[in-house]
Amino acid sequence: MWFPLAFMSIVQTVAGIANAPKEVKVSLSLEGFSEIFTDYSVGKNLRKWEEEEFKDLNKGFIENLGAQQMLSRYDHGDLFSVKVNKNSDTIWSITEPQRQNMINLLSQRSEINNQTTSCGAWFVFDYRIRRNPNQYNKLYEFASGEAKHLLSLEECDDFKAVLEGESPNLNVTINKAIPHYIRALNTDTAREMTGILNADINTKLWANLTLSLQRKVTVLRVCESATDAYKINGVESCQPGETEHTTVKEEKWWSMTTLGKLIPTDPESDDLVDELIIISDKTGPESLAWLTGYGVIGLYLSVVLLAGRYTRAIFQYDGAYIMFHEYPNVDELLQLCSDIYLVRELKEWKLEEDLMAKLIYLYRSPETMLRVTKLRPYKPKLKQIKQD
């Protein structure tokens, strides 16, 4: 019963290898709306930790037994720094009705315990981690999760002001919106390391996020003819017969800065941090991937199915063998079979049919068969001697 758990624990502890992330995607959004910020981290933006860094991390949590116990399962090769760019990788394009819906949501008021403390909008930090799968666990190539934060009244008002564009220099600060430590499990799930993040002395390990909406306005000169339109730059002029006019193109994207601590060496001060820490669970070696690739549940199913198949193969014929071959007293059965052969020779078909029905009934009724074949004590018949 304990074999799958013990086997998986030994494999991941003794023979496990680091399951390094290949790509990390982070995104920010208001719940129910499209993403406002997206960043993809690959290549040089993913860095494995050094041994000295891991030692410093353990020293920072020396007073937190829960965090120490959690970190004891890993070594420096399981921790990866993910650098997040300041500016979003994608242009923020939103229709005017959707922008107005966001403003309306941020304008609402939600009461908790008869106190108005929020507008009821949730800010979502979503993360997805892609690992290098083997041929047996492609299902778990991606691990994803999210952290949700209920916006306060002040945060709702600041967010609303940014969306309304009252000033180009406005920004919104969201407190404790991003967890710095994320654990990537060997399944399709990733989650924040609550054992580290929620300790009293480590509240600064949740990053405070500052968002601002950037704009770039470009004025384009366009030459338009009866059949075509194209852009021109510099001192170029339109051809004869073409009409020149200007168009304005505006691009919007979000930028962010995070304020927090990666290692709690100095909880009294904050630093500008542009990194996330991914703690990745070890995976089994490639040679054992066919056995460990489906996790503990898959191993349990394999053991149960295999054991069940062999157990069934061993015992499925024993009942029939005992029922039909281990009768204690077969005299009446033999007599019935002899009677069937006899009436068949005499061509008494009706009687043969009745006797065959009786034989079939005996084999279909175990209770009757046991009663008929029951071993009875031997009672010799006493001959009466007639006296003259």
Description:
The protein has helices at 3-14, 51-60, 65-71, 96-107, 153-164, 194-197, 289-292, 295-315, 318-325, 331-345, 349-364, 366-372; strands spanning 21-30, 35-42, 46-48, 79-83, 110-112, 115-131, 142-152, 171-179, 181-184, 190-192, 206-224, 229-232, 243-260, 271-272, 275-280. The longest helix has 21 residues, at 295-315. It folds into 2 domains: 18-218 and 257-283, no CATH class; 317-372, no CATH class. Helix 4 (96-107) runs antiparallel to helix 5, helix 10 (331-345) runs antiparallel to helix 11 and helix 11 packs across helix 12. The mean pLDDT is 78. It is built from 12 helices and 15 strands. Strands 1, 2, 5, 6 and 7 form a 5-stranded antiparallel sheet that branches. A hairpin with a 4-residue loop joins strand 1 and strand 2 (35-42). The chain is elongated, with a radius of gyration of 39 Å. With 388 residues, it is α+β, with helices and mostly antiparallel strands. It holds the Pfam family Piezo_cap. Residues 1-16 form the signal peptide.
Secondary-structure blueprint:
Blueprint: H1 3-14, E1 21-30, E2 35-42, E3 46-48, H2 51-60, H3 65-71, E4 79-83, H4 96-107, E5 110-112, E6 115-131, E7 142-152, H5 153-164, E8 171-179, E9 181-184, E10 190-192, H6 194-197, E11 206-224, E12 229-232, E13 243-260, E14 271-272, E15 275-280, H7 289-292, H8 295-315, H9 318-325, H10 331-345, H11 349-364, H12 366-372
Parallel strand pairs: 9-15
Antiparallel strand pairs: 1-2, 1-6, 3-4, 4-15, 5-6, 6-7, 8-11, 9-10, 11-12, 11-13, 13-14
Helix pairs in contact: 4-5, 10-11, 11-12
